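Bench log. Compound arrived from synthesis this morning; before running ITC I wanted a structural hypothesis for how flavin-adenine dinucleotide sits in the protein. Inputs:
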Amino acid sequence: MSKYDVIVLGSGPGGYVTAIRASQLGLKTAIIEKESLGGVCLNWGCIPTKALLKSAQVFDYLKHADSYGLTVKEFDKDFGKVVERSRGVAEGMSKGVQFLMKKNKIDVINGYGKLKTGKKVDVDGKEYSADHIIIATGARSRELPNLKQDGKKVIGYREAMTLKKQPKSMIVVGSGAIGSEFAHFYNSMGTEVTIVEFLPTLVPLEDEDVSKQFERSFKKAGIKVMTNSSVEKLDTSGKLVNATVKTKKGEEILEAEVVLSAVGIASNLENIGLEDVGIATDKGKVMVNDYYQTNIPGYYAIGDIVPGPALAHVASAEGITCVEKIAGLNVEPIDYGNIPGCTYASPEIASVGMTEKQAKEAGYELKVGKFPFSASGKASASGEKDGFVKVIFDAKYGEWLGCHMIGAGVTDMIAEAVLGRKLETTGHEVLKAIHPHPTMSEAVMEAVADAYGEVIHL
Ligand SMILES: Cc1cc2nc3c(=O)[nH]c(=O)nc-3n(C[C@H](O)[C@H](O)[C@H](O)COP(=O)(O)OP(=O)(O)OC[C@H]3O[C@@H](n4cnc5c(N)ncnc54)[C@H](O)[C@@H]3O)c2cc1C
């Protein structure tokens, strides 16, 4: 039997990053994976969707080329090639992880891993043991009883990014990041898209101002938006799917070629030996402490299978924290209040910290500032003036409570707020940190200036 210091079960952004950090810390490490290295993120999530969205962006630029003074006589999309490009990008990233495993001298064990008592893992009949076993088996598309996926007419995200033929019409159920990104992608490609959201606003976890602007932009782009609505029933017997949608005004029947269920994820907890080992779970998640130890010594869990935001950067950070603690480093628990979340539709959304509503409910007295991209030189030059940056500060001590952005490229801008908040920056310090001109990032400085009554370009 092979013996390791650390075995990681699952090679998503949680698992493979953990394995690299473990190896860097001098721990003899193996990683077990039943599919391609890189997990959902690299193969079926973050990366292939961003490749599809890039194609949509280029296509949209071509559609509006005349507004940039350019004449493009003929252009069209080739849906098959768009999907092929996305698959190629995902494959390349997975190969990159293979290289990283080799570089870091991590043993890759291909196969299905099942936990055993005595800190062992069985992989298709062969046993491996380690002092520390880190479970990072991730998640899959959640299935609701009234949205049973058949992989053809009612699909999840995996099928949505590999369809052979572009559907003429699509109903997207759920307007979180995944639903919104696919709604935007297919709408840009020319599919007739309806997005159905149970809650009163699209992207319901975002600040209300952001949700409102996002809804306006989606409607302007031609997406049919149905909020306060739920898909009650699907009839897939005909050529098209008939969806019965309950709205505030009564029932409506929608027809589409395809229904995409984007109603969240379900953790991969089944058949991995949790019960055999006695590892405690609750509400479909593995229970862990601040350092990702389960109730059974020597077994840990990170990423989409533990409570907390199901995001790649969270999975990676949890894995690093877990393994640094194992190696005896003095490591702080993760601050779950300072995790950025992004939606890569058009417009993009990025946020961190409290929404205005949450900050008010928490009892803070607020200083709120907002700077619209319509007043930004860079946004004007780029022809991307929709959106804004909104910042929320505690009026008493100047703490940066939240930052919410919507517009072109904002997903690359939110890190400033994350870093500022991590370093406990005050608004005044952000104001005095000189931002380059002309950039979209100036909008952060200007929004902060607005909160303090010092805005220049409004
Ligand atoms: C469409 C889509 C878009 C997304 N976009 C973003 C984004 O833009 N940004 C972001 O931060 N997050 C995004 N996410 C979420 C992100 O992909 C996940 O949060 C992240 O992949 C979780 O990482 P993980 O390591 O916990 O698990 P996963 O990435 O799910 O990896 C788990 C791995 O474990 C393997 N595994 C499971 N069971 C076993 C077993 N028994 N034996 C061997 N191997 C096993 C699986 O095959 C898989 O490779 C997106 C998700 C989806 C679906």
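What the model suggests: The longest strand covers residues 126-135. The longest helix spans residues 79-103.
ITC booked for Thursday regardless.
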